[in-house]
Design brief:
It is a single chain. By secondary structure, this protein is α+β, with helices and mostly antiparallel strands. The protein is 33% helix and 27% strand. Helix 8 crosses helix 10. It starts with a helix and ends with a strand. Bound molecules: pyridoxal-5'-phosphate. The site of pyridoxal-5'-phosphate has 14 residues, from helix 8 and strand 13.
């Protein structure tokens, strides 16, 4: 990240808004020591906060799943998000909302932690270069599998992203843009930080969350758009074969948007359904505004 980008970010921390580069977390915070916490990545649009209630709900469930409670509850978290967005003041951006277990002992026992720490960072959107957005990105299949739900449930957006980071590193080392991740059974789960969709004829399919995908809110929006456009949408098990036999493949995320996939493991992915993907992308731009909640 360039200095210019990090300089302009701000963060809500300990009740104050500061330049993100000056925000500090205590070394004994278990979020820092162990990745003990949960987070959200939220898009800010010209109309407000995209799917605000859905983000708060997903965060609340994730926090409950790991037994993390915040002083003041989710109402306080909501008002921190509002305050940060207002202080950010720009009409487009990306929020990183973090709930960490808080300061505790050096050992991992969460019972040693005091109050949970809330942090909200506001940043600009990072966009793909236009030629990349047009051509699509190159994926490799990671050798690392997404963990099963009884190991570390991928539906919990936890601060434990080492599995995803190592997959992304593998993609970097192999000269690709990102990694496709399979589950232990070899079915497609998701990409390192995005959900995968395949367009085949009139079918728009995405891996079921039980196959190791986060229930992405961009994913939810794409499924709604798919139904509105007359696609047969399905959440089901997909293999690498389904990506090679599709008419187009793309991935979705709050930060990434909707991005076409050009190749997987060095073999081209068909692009013949691009016009249909463009219809979905166009409607997605409208939904970004329609589903945003004003914070004024
Ligand atoms: C592992 C993973 N999958 C999928 C997504 C996409 O989710 P969303 O559309 O809610 O941003 C993300 C987003 O960060 C992610 O980290």
């Amino acid at each position: 990240m360039s200095n210019a980008q990090s300089e302009e970010m701000i963060a809500w921390i300990d009740g104050a808004i500061v330049p993100a580069r000056q925000a500090r977390v205590p070394v004994l915070d278990h979020g820092f020591l162990f990745g003990d916490g949960v987070f959200e990545g939220i898009r800010v649009t010209t109309a407000g906060i995209f799917r605000f209630d859905d983000h708060m709900r997903r965060l609340e469930i994730a926090a409950r799943t790991i037994g993390l409670e915040v002083d003041g509850g989710m109402e306080r978290v909501r008002s921190i998000v509002r305050e940060t967005t207002l202080a950010w003041g720009r009409r487009e951006g990306y929020l990183r909302l973090i709930l960490s277990r808080g300061v505790g002992a050096l050992g991992l026992d969460p019972a040693s932690c005091g109050t949970a720490n809330v942090i909200c960072i506001a940043a600009g959107m990072v966009r793909l270069p236009p030629e990349k957005a047009e051509r699509g990105i190159d994926l490799i299949t990671s050798s690392l599998r997404r963990p099963a739900g009884d190991v570390l449930d991928p539906r919990v957006k936890s601060l434990n992203y080492l599995n995803n980071i190592l997959a992304k590193r593998e993609a970097n080392l192999r000269g690709a843009d990102d990694a496709l991740m399979l589950n232990a059974q070899g079915q497609v789960a998701e990409a390192s930080a995005a959900n995968v969709f395949v367009l085949t004829g009139n079918c728009l399919d995405t891996p079921a969350c039980s196959d190791g995908a986060l229930e992405g809110l961009t994913r939810r929006t794409v499924l709604e758009i798919g139904s509105d456009l007359g696609f047969e949408t399905q959440e089901r098990s997909l293999g690498r074969f389904d990506l090679f036999s599709a008419d187009s493949v793309f991935y979705s995320g709050s930060r990434a948007g909707l991005v076409p996939i050009a190749s997987l493991d060095g073999s081209p992915i068909d692009q013949s359904a691009r016009p249909r993907l463009e219809e979905i992308q166009a409607l997605f731009q409208k939904r970004l505004i329609e589903l945003s909640v004003s914070i004024d």
